[in-house]
Amino acid sequence: MIDGEALRREMTVLTAGTAGDGSGQAARNGVLQLLKGRLADGRAIAERMLRDDGGGSACAARLSHLMDEIIRALYDFAVTHVYRVKNPSSAERMAVVAVGGYGRGTLAPGSDIDLLFLLPYKQTPWGEQTVEYMLYML
């Protein structure tokens, strides 16, 4: 349905001309188009599989997996290519947690993506920028 590693590689290629810096508008536009395309492709595959097997719960699990891979790839891109920290402290880390139905591994078609960003004891500009970037891209 989606190959998360291949998606990460394709996103990284978008930074080839900028020595790995993905903060420019061209990289942002490229990543956004790539993610939109993968999401549309994955949804189409999930719909075809639903029509074939009639498994509503299985379809919801497939959609959840699709979003998991997209969010993982986006997070990795954000912290590796957009908001890189050369010497990160304990304050420059976070966990991205799915909540609600999505957090239970069942994402209904057209449903909201409910995310919780768990940050260390003290918010940093890095954390704020990373969260904003991810939310704007989603």
From TrEMBL:
Keywords: Hydrolase, Nucleotidyltransferase, Transferase
CDD domains per UniProt: NT_GlnE_GlnD_like
Hydrolase keyword on record: yes
Entry GO MF terms: [glutamate-ammonia-ligase] adenylyltransferase activity; [protein-PII] uridylyltransferase activity; hydrolase activity
Domain Glutamate-ammonia ligase adenylyltransferase repeated, residue spans: 61-124
InterPro entries for the chain: GlnE_rpt_dom, NT_sf, UTase/UR
UniProt-listed Gene3D superfamilies: Beta Polymerase, domain 2 (3.30.460.10)
Name of the protein in question: Uridylyltransferase
Native source organism of the sequence: Mesorhizobium ciceri
Lineage: Bacteria, Pseudomonadati, Pseudomonadota, Alphaproteobacteria, Hyphomicrobiales
Gene from which the chain derives: glnD
